Structure formats: C-alpha cells, structure tokens
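Record 1 of the preview.
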Amino acid sequence: MGGRRDSPLLCLIMSEDEKEQDTEEPTSEELATGEQVENDTSPIEAEGSEEAEESEESVDEFDDEAEEVEFDLEAQVEEFRNQIEEDPDNCVHFYNLGEALAELGQLDEAHESFDQALLLDDSRSFSAIIHFGIGNLFYHQLMSGIQSTVVKSSVGLHSQHRAGTTIISVNDDDYAIPLRSFEASLQDLPTLQADEEIMEYISKHVPQQIATVYYKWASDLFDKARQIEKYGGEVQDIKQGLKHLKKAVDIDPNHTQANLMVKYGKKMLQEGFSIYDEYGFEAKEIPGTG
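->
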C-alpha cells in the first residue's frame, strides 16, 4: 500500500541534532497550526526528504506538480513511536504514526493508532484530520477490493457472466463506514487547529472522496443487477444506485462518470435491459417500465 498517502502529517520529523538544538519542546497545537518555533521549521513534513536534517524547509505536498521522492517510512514509524514514548498523551503523534503505518500497509495497527488519537483529542482540535485518516483506510480497502467482494466493478454496463468476476453481493457497510468517517471530518473541520493549507486540503479532498464512494456504490449495484443470472431485485438495485448517483452529482456536478451512469440507469429502468454471456447469448432480460 505504499504511496497511499492522502492525508498530511501534522508535524516535522527532526534529527537528533535538531532535537538537541530545540531547548523548548513545541506543543502539538504549535506543530499543527504552523506557529513559529525556535528552529523555524514548517508544521508539515517535507514529503520527499530522505534525511530529516535536510528538511528545514517544508515541501508543499499538496501541490500536484511537486516532485515525489522516496523517503524512509520505517524510520518515520520508529521516530513517531519514540515521540509517543516521550509524550504519550499527544494525539498528534498517534495520528502521524497512523498515517505512516497506513502507508506501509499495516492497516490494523494504523486504525488502532488513529482510534487512540481520537481518544486523546478531548478538545477535537485535530479530530477532522484524524477522521479523514480513518476514512481513507476504509476507502482504499473498498477501492482495492481488500474488504469487499465487490471489487472490480466496471460501471456495470459491459459486465458479463464470467467466473470469478461476478458481483453477487453489495455490503452496505463497506460504503457507509468510510462515508461516516468523511462526514465526521467535515463536521469537525471548524474546530481543526491547523494551518490554512491543511484546512484547504481537507475541505477539498473530503467531498471528493464522499462523491467517489457514492459513485462506487452505485456502480457496484448496477453490476450486481446485471451479473446475477437468477436474482429478481435488479430494478430495486438500479433505483437505489440512482439515489447514490444523485448524492455524488450533488457534491460534484461535474462528475462525468456519475452523470453518464444516471442517464444509463434511467434508460435501463424505462426501456429494460438484456444481459449477454461471454459467448454472445442472452443470459437474462429485464423488462422496462415503458
């Protein structure tokens, strides 16, 4: 799961030499809000640095054009664990550890770290970004098929009855769980004690993730309706899928795929649809409402 990073880190990793130069430990609020500390470092980790002592200036990791350089995730994890030992009541350290563990694909440990961060964040100063991190865990499991049997839906329109690819179930929790986390992130955004870049990052990306989950949910329902040979709930699935698509389009009116699927879904309900197997023979036919 390397390269999964969707959430920013809230603090900068410092080398031992840099730590010795800091006579006063900055608070978690200073780290997250970007208030200047003695060594004049940025609150956001320089994403591409291979050595922490070269990270005196922050790299704008929210710039899509910024060059991505490999960094030592294992060293990050070790550093965050050390910070937790020194300051076990600081929710920011647990959040940062969760992000690094998620990047390494250690999902269970990452979730535990995020949960601990939420428990420690009594003032909800950082809960928006912590909920975002949790939402991303489930989001990537959903999109990559780690968590659900609903894995590789193809927008539903060209699906065929092929062994191993047929969607036979759509588990609502697979979609509802990341949605709840993303919605909690937006709800807690007004209390987030972070610099402007992080605030803008959350404001921009959370709605996009929510719209994508609704689109994925609809797509999987469409595929399920078309792929199961003897089912009976096809029309219900298409109608439910259209409701999810409406939510996606309400959030992102320019979502091309969602808008296209809305047109196909309405046409399928009105005119009906036929499904053909991989040999070109009709597998089933669903009548329309006219």
